[in-house]
Amino acid sequence: MRKFLSWFTFILLVVVIVLAIARCTAAPQAATPGKTDRPVTYVRLFPDNLPADALARLTDNCGPLGMPQPLEPEPTVRHMPEDSAPLASRGTSLVCRDGYALLHSDTAKVPLWVCEHVKPANLNGSVKRSDKFEPDPQLPVGKRAELVDYRGSGYDRGHMAPAGNQTTDAVRKAETFYLSNMVPQDPQLNQKAWAKLEDLTRSWASAAGGAWIITGPMYWDEAEENPATADGIVPHRTIGPNRVAVPSHTYKIVLLNGASAGLWRVVAFVMPNEGDYPPPYDFTKYIRPVSSIEQRTGLNFFPGFSETERQKYESRPGVMP
Question: Is-contact 299 224, C-beta < 8 A?
């Protein structure tokens, strides 16, 4: 009897240990919906496989709501210059710098999005523009834009993270001139209305104590809005031997802290990459809901928002501060 109890105790102990190990190594369960009203799924706000310094730059520039992510785990391309292959197979490169972070398309040779944390302390310096445009040394030849691509194209090298947002550090300012931070932009837009919009966002960031800004290209075709005519491919121009994709529009999304903790102010703009922009500029004509930009880019710009917050901040047009 004593021997039987010893074996029974031993087997019971083994079972307990096995169950404990299984519990510790099991995949984490989805969070229970509560205050956030999120679906029962995990959303990683940032990758967990980056070096610590790159992750620190990414989290600072993208802010507390996370980095832009695909709307779906394996989305097909909509309103993008590539074909309809899944996003994961198209080829992208994440670049994290002190002044900005971006996701670069190795096919289109432009950033899909550029995030920056615009801080008042960085706006009051005296560092001058170098105007020294360069290909991005972090990206391999053949998967990036080169100076020759823009030469004689009729398009400006349009900053997504502006040089004017970095006035206290020469290195940070110089890094805004890498071509990975550029899209081919119509001179009438880049030098006039877009430059004025950049000035406005700096004034808003100064008044609010800082801002997180997401800027990027949009490839929009009206035919894609109609299921009967949509084919997942957007006609677009390219420039240069590396076929840098010319966007139909550019967008800028501004996230500001609200008057109270936990509140936000969001306003987003979409501007056609063509035509004339005579002053004075009425930017209210270009305000769009964040959700409409997400639908046209396939990106979730603020994955940290709850469903309730999405309805509040993304589903309707914002208001200029």
Answer: no
Q: With beta carbons less than 8 A apart as the criterion, state whether 303 and 66 touch.
A: yes
List of E strands, the chain: 69-70, 92-96, 101-105, 111-118, 156-159, 182-185, 211-218, 238-239, 244-245, 249-257, 264-272, 299-300
Q: What is the pLDDT of residue 259?
A: 64
Q: Where are the domains of the chain?
A: 50-313
Confidence of residue 66 (pLDDT cuts 50, 70, 90): very high
104 a catalytic residue: no
Residue 74, pLDDT above cutoff 90: no
Sign of CA dihedral 123, 56, 175, 87: negative
Q: What is the pLDDT of residues 75-94, one digit of tens each?
A: 444 444 444 444 434 689 99
Query: Which amino acid, one-letter code, is at 214?
Result: I
Q: pTM (2 decimals)?
A: 0.82
Q: In CATH, what number does 50-313 get?
A: 3.40.570.10
Out of 79, 104, 117, 159, pick the active-site residue. 159
